[in-house]
Amino acid sequence: MTRPPAKPGGRFPRLREFRQEILTGPRAGALGRSLQPSETLDVTHISGIGAGQRPKRVLVADDDADVCALLELVLAPLAHVTTVHDAEAALSLLATQPAYDAIVSDFMLPGINGVEFVERVRRDKHVASVPILMISGHGEINVGARARAAGVDAFLDKPFTLTQLRATIRKLLLPRVRFA
Asked: What is the pTM of this model?
């Protein structure tokens, strides 16, 4: 998928440097070589996936290319991350590949907003039980309440810390016990 061009300066001006450091810097040394930007890293040994288990998968829907890149970097040790830039693309993926373990959605998406996206996901019996984290930099007080009323499992206001993000996603990826 092609990313939309980042806004000049972007929300995360040092993201490109941080990404390059992750791919080729001292942290990449643990892999024994540098990663190429287009290469996928097998993280099953990091995320605690046992033999015979499939890796966790997270779908990210955010129209900001910088936020998508940041979420990909931060969540890579926890799951395989797929990013899309609008709710329609996310719904299309969920219809054809419903095996996602969690969804991260921005509140403000082009076309269908995040709340409508969550409502549509919750109405689809194939993906209705997938945990959803909504993130927002909107600033309105009632955004979190609207998101929860639509059916999100967790909500984070931007700016959030990377620790908050990781902890929230870890909770969403935990196995859930269903009672009949």
From this structure: 0.71
